[in-house]
Amino acid sequence: MKKNLTFTPSLSIQSFIFLFFIALSSLTSCSEEEQEDRSISINSIDAENIQFNSTTLKWYSSISGEKTTTVFDIYLNDKLIKKGYEKNSFELYNLTPNTQYSGKIIGRTNFDTNVEKIFSFTTADYPDPLSFNVLATKITSESAVITWKTPKTLDQATLTYSIYVNGEVKKENIAENTAGNFYKITDLVPYKEYIIRVIATTDKNKQTFKEISFNAFATSFQELTLTSKNITQTAANIDWNVSTVDYLDANIITYDIYLNGTLLIENTTETTHLLQNLTPNKYYTAKVIAKLKNGDSIPKKIEFKTLGTPPSDFTVSLKGEAQPNWTETQWTLPTVADDVSFKYNLYLNDEIIEHDILSFVDNRTLTDLKEATLYTLKLVAIANNGTETFSNTITFKTITYPKINGDLILNFSNNLGTSVIAYWTPVSYTHNNENKRVYYNISIKELNNYDDSTTKLSRYLNNLKPNTSYTVRIKATVTDSGFNNYIPSKTIEKTVTTAQDYPLHPTIKITEAILYAKNSRYFPGQIRVKFSEKISDIDVETFFASTMFMNNFQTYSSSILSNKLSNSKYDYIVNNFGGNVIVNQGYVVFNDAGKTYRIPYSFHIVFI
């Protein structure tokens, strides 16, 4: 089936007319709104917090109508300084002090309406300096130093200062010192009170001040010392030194000098003076007064005595050669004036070793010296009139102590297990060409209580243990050395080990032992040992005589016979026989039936 589509307008003529009138009504309404009030007003302008170089402007504005905005143009003295400013307050800076300003503010809206409001104000005058501190320092009886801190100024002004003391101006127009402000006041009076005023003045003639007070010290002096020195018969030096409180200028101190009440010098700045033309052997009183111009002073006195006539020259010498530890000295006696006495001091190496030696003494023995040492010696004669005279100085050297001569050599013989003979070489000691007696002290280190002394050259060491080592010490000493407190000595040590202890044979004895003279008809220079019975069945292991082992010997039926001794060994025995060395002892060790025996013996010399 086929359809026919027909277009029908959606709005009728009546509807179109209705919409037209509505639009016209709207245009009419807009025209009426544009005629609404859009005015602006500024009620007042105030200058607040007026300073010498700034202020704050504040104003109060109002506007009419909706959607209206405002900005402000600010003029100062007819000059636009801010345009299109949106706030209701504005800071003015860099103004001139004590100056009248005028201006205006124009308010403008976004609908081209505006309003204008004028204002005026006068800036404040230049400011005064702010407060500051003042101190009195370094106070003495004569002066004080006034110090102050630079006060602050709001306008960064340049400052000068004036100082008043007790109402009287002392100094004006003191320039500011960046390193510190100070002024020294002098010529004060002790104890007096002082009122100090410091006035700070700006370059705009604005002022502030600070006032303080203090009292000058009673005195600036603490102590004055006065000494005398280099006193002679007619002159003396006096020196002085004064101590003061801190900060006093020592250059302003002067001194007056008196001698026995008479003024010699006034207002000197020296600290030493030579007193001349004095009388010998007389007492004087010197006085020094330290003073300041303000009357502050301190005195000091000292008493001294000039010298009299000193003792005459005298000479010291040695009586003889200086010994190792002592020497004798002597000296001539000095002369002195009438009614004057004196004593000596004795110096050794510039140190006093004896005081107050009486004037009639003319010698001294010096003891406790050191050998081979150089010494200087002098005396001083000290008189009771204040004078003294030194003798000449002598130099001497002590000699070296003589020593023990010879090598001390220690050996051992006749080692029997429980005893041994120690023998040693002799040593000697000579003083002034005189041979002194030498003593030999024998000690055994392992036996603390063993101590023996002899002038001989050998000693039996008994009560020993077999197969034991002992350290034997021989100390040679000379008790009469010829010197006080000097005992020369020489020491040697040697270790000996005792032999094994063998028993005596129950029946076999040694009946005789003989050293035949080297010119004897029979057995010349040989040692023969006889036994109490035949020894053909025994084995002789050791044949010892004096200090020698007989390594070569002959065995007979009841005796043994050594080979001929050398001349030196023979002479050693003969020369010491019965003397200082034990040389006539020996022993024989033999084996009988598997057992070892030892028989000691003594031999004698036969000259046939």
Strand and helix map with partners:
Blueprint: H1 13-33, E1 40-48, E2 55-63, E3 70-76, E4 79-85, E5 89-92, E6 100-109, E7 114-122, E8 134-137, E9 144-148, E10 159-165, E11 168-175, E12 181-185, E13 193-202, E14 207-215, E15 221-229, E16 236-244, E17 254-259, E18 262-268, E19 272-275, E20 283-291, E21 297-305, E22 316-318, E23 327-331, E24 342-348, E25 351-358, E26 363-366, E27 374-383, E28 388-390, E29 394-397, E30 410-413, E31 420-424, E32 430-431, E33 434-435, E34 439-444, E35 447-454, E36 458-461, E37 469-477, E38 489-497, E39 510-516, E40 527-531, E41 539-545, E42 548-549, E43 553-555, E44 559-562, H2 567-576, E45 585-592, E46 595-602, E47 604-606
Parallel strand pairs: 39-47
Antiparallel strand pairs: 1-2, 2-5, 3-4, 3-6, 6-7, 8-9, 9-12, 10-11, 10-13, 13-14, 15-16, 16-19, 17-18, 17-20, 20-21, 22-23, 23-26, 24-25, 24-27, 27-28, 27-29, 30-31, 31-36, 32-33, 34-35, 34-37, 37-38, 39-40, 40-44, 41-42, 41-45, 43-44, 45-46
Care to describe what's here?
There is one protein chain. This protein has 608 residues and is mainly beta. It folds into six domains: 40-122, Sandwich (Immunoglobulin-like); 134-215, Sandwich (Immunoglobulin-like); 221-305, Sandwich (Immunoglobulin-like); 316-397, Immunoglobulins (Immunoglobulin-like, Sandwich), CATH 2.60.40.10; 410-497, Sandwich (Immunoglobulin-like); 510-606, Immunoglobulin-like (Sandwich), CATH 2.60.40. It contains two helices and 47 strands. The strands form 13 sheets. Strands 24, 25, 27, 28 and 29 form a five-stranded antiparallel sheet that branches. The chain has a five-stranded mixed sheet with strand order 43-44-40-39-47, with no helix packed on it. A hairpin with a 2-residue loop joins strand 34 (439-444) and strand 35 (447-454). The longest helix has 21 residues, at 13-33. The N and C termini lie far apart (203 Å).
